[in-house]
Amino acid sequence: MAHEIVMLGTGNAFLPNGRHHSFAIFDRKHIIDAPPTALISLRQNGININEITTIFITHLHGDHIFGLPFLLLERTYISDREFSQPLTIVAAPGARKRIEDLCEIAYPGSLQKILSMIVWDENAQGTTVDGWNWNRFEVNHNDSVDPFGYSFESSKGAKFVHSGDSGPCDSLYSAISKTDLAIIEMAIPEWVPSSEHHKPSDIQKLSERLPGVHFIITHTFIDSKNSAMPKITSKEFPSHPSNVLHAEDGFSIKWENKWIF
User: Fold this and answer.
1) Are 257 and 225 in contact (CB under 8 A)?
2) Secondary structure of the chain: what % helix, strand, coil (to 5)?
3) Which of 13, 52, 190, 251 is deepest in the core (most CB within 10 A)?
4) Model-level pTM?
5) Over the stretch 146-194, which tens digit does the pLDDT of each residue have?
6) CA 159, CA 168: separation in Å to the nearest integer?
7) What is the maximum span of the chain, computed from C-alpha positions, in angstroms?
8) Which residues, in sequence order, are CB contacts of 12 under 8 Å at separation 6+?
9) How far apart (Å, rounded) are the C-alpha atoms in residues 144 and 156?
10) Phi and psi at residue 29, in whole multiples of 5°?
């Protein structure tokens, strides 16, 4: 069976026109983060909430975890009322308490049972039940939200890296240099004075430095090319190198001995 990654959402926190918040799923069961638009993203792609077995948390900003109460509420009262489907949340130490507090604020008392049944994995490395090895590593973002990226490798040899939210940093670039596919954020235009996100020029330099890696842009500030609405921040796409693809919501990548776009 081939592996598949689907970009369920590709927008940054400000929801550029035609994009949901940055959100990815692989093999229809493992999701990376759970943004506020997670439920609609999953439903539009025909994925049942109770099919999800693992949630990998990159960091604790609202556009990456504020969908968790809604996912857990749906699972509790609609798709898994018997609590028969196991669910693991992979997150850094300390994240569990903040996530549980968020869920209690959102729906007081309604999520206690499912929260008590979740398997919380705070290890820096691990393996999913279907054979994906994963490794969590620190990245360059706001330290108060515990920012991490992840590298993944399946038992069949498929490999990819997810940056989470991160500006340029050695830990991320080292991980990317060991893979052939990187899902990487590009959250801000050149004029924004921040080093905690990638800008178009950063992606240009990195993709030229690692020409053997395919880069999938997510968490972008640029409106979808399919949107006819007035621009939010920008409608203009950079002239990316050939190994860079600016993904749209719903974009799928499959692996059959190599990644197929």
Assistant:
1) no
2) 25, 25, 50
3) 52
4) 0.98
5) 999 999 999 999 999 999 999 999 999 999 999 999 999 999 999 999 9
6) 21
7) 51
8) 21, 22, 63, 185, 187, 188, 219, 220, 221
9) 36
10) -145, -15
